[in-house]
Automatic annotation (TrEMBL):
Keyword Phosphoprotein: no
Higher taxonomy: Bacteria, Pseudomonadati, Pseudomonadota, Alphaproteobacteria, Sphingomonadales
Protein name: Aldehyde dehydrogenase
InterPro entries assigned to the protein according to its UniProt record, in alphabetical order: Ald_DH/histidinol_DH, Ald_DH_C, Ald_DH_CS_GLU, Ald_DH_N, Aldehyde_DH_dom
UniProt keyword annotations, A-Z: Oxidoreductase
GO molecular function: oxidoreductase activity, acting on the aldehyde or oxo group of donors, NAD or NADP as acceptor
Gene3D superfamilies found in the cross-reference section: Aldehyde Dehydrogenase, Chain A, domain 1, Aldehyde Dehydrogenase, Chain A, domain 2
Family affiliation: Belongs to the aldehyde dehydrogenase family.
Entries under PANTHER family matching the protein: ALDEHYDE DEHYDROGENASE-RELATED (PTHR11699)
Length: 472
């Protein structure tokens, strides 16, 4: 396959793809190694993950160079590589504590004479199917805790952003004891992966997530799905409008809005709507593109070219329905890449695609509300429920509103905090996901299967206890 450079628009990177047979072989090889990996114990596994962190840092430049081409951005690419090392160290420290805290002792059953002893073991082979928007982060965010739990890990990065795999394979070659492998290719490789693993994590669109869930159901394996979002932000009448506009802008447009936790709907109280919009427009006009210099500016190109077309269609639909475009609004083709400046929309209606469907770009549709009940109802009027945000005059006011929002993670007095906070256990609503939380301790514990040793300490019941006859 060939991958396109998002800055030039040229398909300038060719890579070998796997076949169903090679995926099956990779799965067999990992299964052969998994037993020894789990048997070495969590403390020994932690030492290996710490070495992985060191090696990622030692090879940071090579991984960064590849990822920067993959994504067309530099600052966030650097953060991703450094974040992988931090993630390894985080779980290397936390996983042994969690394993030590698991119940091991016999406890009396409600059934007289019976005791229950719990045992825990890892799913033998974990699989991950990752998206293109944060290639390093999302290829490993689940794999690292799975490895710490004792699983072997088979990861399929996105075929849109494959370049980082080559330097990462060089890193893994220095850790032969680590049962982690990558397989490359399109949807057929993802389907083959699901057929051979014991647990699959998928990050991506709701549409593809359904296909993953269906394949996992056929294989009768658990599927953890982290899907799309249409995250709302509520700005109350007591919020400082200039501060709120600054938070809203950052939460919406960082990474060119190509993040599932980006704010994609803004509901602002009428009392502060005008100064909020003035500040939002002023802030948006200071945001610059990273063209022609990738080392300066704020917003890079769309990583996946088709995304630009989808967003342009949403903006056109909003315009046709009477929405006003205050800033941006036009996809710019620069040097072969597709860019969009922050696009602020007003006079949007609930039936517009820009309100109903995930956008995944730097588009900020703003709706004015008269009562908080209206704001909460509009924020909850979505088939998605990934995350949300509330900006108010006090934390108490923000928390009272946040408790009424139907989403898994609510940022209070900030926005998109889930991109920076990894220990907030939460469960997505609606079409935004399925399964345990990848955040918090549950992000590790989900990879352990529980077995019950049920001990009969009294007399086993004779067959006559179940014979027909008069009641005893």
């Amino acid at each position: 396959m060939k991958a396109t450079n998002p800055r030039t628009g040229k398909a300038d990177y060719e890579f070998a793809t796997d076949t169903p047979d090679s995926v099956a072989e990779a799965a067999r090889e990992l299964r052969d190694r998994q037993g020894a990996w789990e048997a070495m114990g969590v403390s020994a596994r932690a030492k290996v993950l710490l070495r992985l962190a060191d090696l990622v840092e030692a090879n940071e430049q090579a991984i960064f160079d590849a990822l920067a081409i993959d994504t067309g951005r530099r600052a966030i690419a650097r953060m991703e590589v450094q974040g992988l090392a931090r993630n390894c160290r985080r779980w290397a420290a936390r996983a042994p504590e969690l394993m030590d805290g698991l119940p091991r002792d016999a406890t009396p059953s409600l059934t007289p004479g019976v005791e229950i002893v719990p045992e825990f073991s890892a799913f033998p082979l974990f699989g991950a199917i990752a998206p293109w928007n944060f290639p390093i982060l999302l290829s490993h965010i689940d794999a690292v805790p799975a490895l710490m739990a004792g699983c072997a890990a088979l990861v399929k990065p996105s075929e849109v952003t494959p370049r980082f795999v080559e330097p990462m394979r060089d890193v893994l070659a220095q850790l032969p004891e680590l049962p982690l492998r990558y397989v490359m290719g399109g949807p057929e490789v993802g389907q083959a992966l699901i057929a051979h693993v014991d647990y699959v994590c998928f990050t991506g669109s709701t549409e593809t997530g359904r296909k993953v869930a269906e394949a996992a159901a056929r294989a009768l394996i658990p599927a953890n799905l982290e899907l799309g979002g249409k995250d709302p932000m509520i700005v109350t009448a007591s919020a400082d409008p200039a501060w709120a506009a600054n938070v809203a802008l950052r939460s919406s447009v960082v990474a060119t809005g190509q993040a599932c936790q980006s704010i994609e709907r803004i509901y602002v109280a009428r009392e502060v709507a005008d100064p909020f919009l003035d500040a939002l427009v002023a802030g948006a006009e200071t945001v610059t593109l990273t063209h022609p210099d990738p080392g300066s500016g704020h917003l890079g190109p769309f990583i996946f070219p088709a995304q630009a077309e989808k967003i342009a269609a949403q903006i056109a639909d909003a315009r046709a329905g009477g929405a006003k475009v205050l800033t941006g609004g036009e996809v710019e083709r620069l040097g072969g890449g597709a860019y969009l400046r922050p696009t602020i929309l007003t006079d949007v209606t609930p039936d517009m695609a820009v309100i109903r469907e995930e956008t995944f770009g730097p588009v900020l549709p703003v709706t004015v509300f008269d009562t908080l009940d209206d704001a909460i109802a509009m924020a909850n009027d979505s088939t998605y429920g990934l995350s949300a945000a509330v900006l108010a005059g006090s934390m108490e006011e923000a928390a009272a509103i946040g408790s009424q929002l139907e989403a898994g993670a609510i940022s209070l007095q900030d926005g998109a905090l889930t991109s920076m906070v990894g220990d907030a256990t939460n469960h997505s609503r609606g079409k935004s996901g399925l399964g345990p939380s990848r955040m918090g301790d549950e992000g590790f514990l989900r990879f352990l299967r529980r077995k019950a040793l049920i001990r009969q300490t009294g007399q086993a019941a004779p067959i006559d206890a179940f014979a027909e006859g008069p009641p005893q």
